[in-house]
């Protein structure tokens, strides 16, 4: 039995029905759980002797609104946790979808992995995913007056406002975007456009 098959077996044994999906890609496993099971699953992933995922390497938000060229029919927002077991030399991805697309909320995992603090703040800032129980959930990368969440697929590419220094007022001012929208879709290069000589 390979290490990956063994991990698969251990995950099924320990987590059982908490796992709603398991995939293998590029030699690594990804699992998905329901939001209601997230903290229980994370506790078991971290503390169970067969799993021991002591380290949270990364956490990122995801927006699936246009996934699969518009064929996606599931929930829109998810958080993906990248976990590492140093003691057992294994990696795992855990994905959980927020139940509500209009107001995405998931429980915080800061109490399990303190490093999640800034990762969850980044996910909140860029995707608008709220992390219930987070000790200090506020913007991390955008300005305090920023409107919207720039990594959402429906956020305008040119933004909503721009800032500039106004020499008359001697301060930075915000104003509506003055850039003309442009088409960023590449033109199709057709074979008949080339002349062979």
From TrEMBL:
Key words, A-Z: Cell membrane, Membrane, NAD, Quinone, Translocase, Transport, Ubiquinone
GO cellular component, one term: plasma membrane
Transmembrane segments: none
Localization per Swiss-Prot or TrEMBL: Cell membrane
Name of a matching Pfam family: Complex1_30kDa
Family: Belongs to the complex I 30 kDa subunit family.
Subunit organization: NDH-1 is composed of 14 different subunits. Subunits NuoB, C, D, E, F, and G constitute the peripheral sector of the complex.
PANTHER family listed in its UniProt record: NADH DEHYDROGENASE [UBIQUINONE] IRON-SULFUR PROTEIN 3, MITOCHONDRIAL (PTHR10884:SF14), NADH DEHYDROGENASE UBIQUINONE IRON-SULFUR PROTEIN 3 (PTHR10884)
Name of the molecule in the record: NADH-quinone oxidoreductase subunit C
Gene: nuoC
């Amino acid at each position: 039995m390979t290490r990956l098959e063994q991990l698969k077996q251990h995950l099924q044994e320990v987590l059982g029905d908490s796992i709603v999906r398991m995939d293998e890609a590029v030699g690594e496993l990804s699992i998905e759980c329901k939001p209601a099971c997230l903290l229980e699953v994370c506790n078991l992933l971290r503390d169970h002797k067969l799993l021991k995922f002591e380290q949270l390497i990364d956490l990122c938000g995801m927006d699936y609104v246009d996934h699969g060229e518009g064929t996606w029919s599931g929930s829109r927002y998810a958080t993906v946790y990248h976990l590492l077991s140093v003691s057992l030399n294994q990696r795992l991805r855990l994905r959980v979808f927020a139940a509500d697309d209009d107001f995405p909320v998931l429980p915080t995992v800061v109490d399990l992995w303190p490093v999640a603090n800034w990762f969850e703040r980044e996910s909140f800032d860029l995707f608008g995913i709220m992390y219930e129980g987070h000790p200090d959930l506020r913007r991390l990368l955008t300005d305090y007056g920023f409107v919207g969440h720039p990594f959402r697929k429906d956020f305008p590419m040119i933004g909503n406002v721009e800032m500039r220094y106004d020499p008359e007022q001697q301060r930075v001012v915000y104003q509506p975007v003055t850039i003309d929208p442009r088409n960023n879709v590449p033109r199709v290069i057709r074979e008949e456009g080339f002349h062979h000589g």
